[in-house]
Write a sequence for this structure.
């Protein structure tokens, strides 16, 4: 068994050490010659609280280092139905280092990303609503700090071919539509059909696994990508800290996706189809062999998605109405949800507010027949509506009130439909 553990990388002393190393490297670049071949640019950073830092951010950007700090604070209340009424608070902090290899080292087409994550607070989906899909996309099973992303990417052939390796969030490029990212419900990020697969979930927020992603884009309007990831992200027995483990029996998660971008309009237009499979097998919910042991089955699935800007405000390419739809299926022998879907619309630039976004979405997930037999009591499906609006209070601070109505929470017939209201505050430093 090969086992590599970084248990303390993102805990109290470990994260401070890694951040200090990156900080020293960042400061060192201020006093080193730049290898950039491109013309230097001035970056205003008007959209962050700390601004340009007396020109330091521009200097770093011209040397190939961009630092982003994003803090989110959510207040979520269940006002009716579900498990119980009440209010939970939770937050999410990302500290992101993005590196340009050409500017730093003269290595054309090379880039890297280090994303440190810290979460605090409650789990409103579990404690208030008892909802299998969650109600907030920053709620985590166990609060704490960790190294969330750490990868290097190399582009070739004028960016038509790229290879990425390291700790990687599958949902950053697979099973994703840009407009659905406005919503707070996790299922608008990745569908429940894939999101609940595997022994510790797929490699998505908040725990990722190591892997290699390859992308080929022969033309501006078409690309194909594939990824191989460790089949068990982190440590299922310890959700704190960062673990990179390659244990016997983990297997791998394989995924591939092909996307067509009508009229080169991405992110305003996209049609995609994807498929995934775990190399290791899982216990069937109901079937047993002659010895009484669960029959081993393959866990796999596929999905299709579409996104389109259906109306653009004249003279404002970034404003208008965008619609999306996604549906995915998974093997019901070993996965709770055998299919899930989501659809919605997002309008940008309403009420004369350039950054204002109003979104209405609906999503659902269906329990497989074998899962229902294994638990005895469960409704066939769950569904939720979400209405949300996000706008800037200042250039660096935004607020997002949110309303969710959840039908058949957790597919539990004993629970009444839930009404969840809340708000998100996002600050950029």
């Amino acid at each position: 068994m090969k086992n590599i553990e970084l248990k303390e990388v993102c805990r109290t002393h470990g994260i401070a050490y890694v951040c200090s190393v990156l900080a020293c490297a960042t400061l060192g670049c201020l006093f080193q010659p730049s290898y950039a071949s491109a013309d230097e640019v001035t970056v205003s950073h008007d959209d962050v609280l700390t601004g340009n830092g007396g020109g330091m951010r521009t200097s770093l950007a011209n040397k190939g280092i961009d630092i982003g700090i994003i803090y989110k604070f959510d207040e979520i209340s269940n006002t009716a139905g579900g498990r119980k009424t009440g209010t939970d608070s939770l937050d999410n902090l990302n500290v992101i280092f993005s590196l340009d290899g050409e500017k730093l080292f003269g290595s054309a087409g090379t880039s890297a990303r280090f994303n440190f994550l810290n979460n605090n607070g409650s789990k409103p989906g579990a404690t208030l609503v008892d909802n299998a899909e969650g109600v907030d996309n920053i709620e985590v099973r166990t609060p704490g700090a960790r190294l969330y992303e750490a990868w290097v990417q190399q582009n070739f052939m004028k960016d038509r071919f790229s290879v990425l390796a390291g700790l990687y969030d599958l949902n950053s490029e697979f099973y994703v539509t840009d407009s659905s990212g406005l919503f707070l419900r996790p299922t608008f990020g990745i569908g429940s059909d894939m999101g609940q697969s595997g022994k510790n979930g797929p490699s998505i927020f908040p725990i990722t696994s190591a892997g290699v992603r390859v992308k080929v884009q022969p033309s501006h309007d078409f690309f194909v990508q594939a990824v191989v990831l460790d089949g068990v992200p982190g440590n299922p027995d310890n959700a704190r800290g960062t673990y990179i483990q390659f244990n016997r029996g983990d297997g791998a998660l394989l995924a591939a996706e092909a996307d067509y971008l009508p009229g080169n309009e991405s992110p305003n237009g996209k049609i995609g189809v994807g498929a995934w499979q775990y190399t290791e097998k899982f216990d069937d919910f109901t079937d047993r062999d002659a010895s009484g042991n669960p029959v081993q089955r393959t866990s796999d699935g596929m999905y299709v998605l579409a996104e389109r800007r259906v109306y653009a405000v004249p003279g404002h390419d970034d404003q208008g109405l965008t619609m999306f739809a996604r549906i995915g299926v998974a093997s019901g022998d070993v996965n709770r949800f055998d299919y899930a879907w989501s659809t919605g619309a997002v309008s940008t630039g309403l009420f004369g507010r350039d950054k204002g976004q109003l979104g209405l979405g609906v999503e659902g997930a269906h329990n497989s027949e074998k899962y229902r037999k294994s638990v005895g009591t469960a409704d066939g499906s769950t569904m939720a509506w979400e209405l949300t609006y996000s706008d800037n209070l200042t250039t660096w601070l935004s607020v997002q009130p949110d309303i969710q109505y959840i039908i058949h929470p957790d597919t539990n017939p004993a629970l009444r439909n839930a009404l969840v209201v809340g708000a998100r505050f996002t600050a950029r430093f």
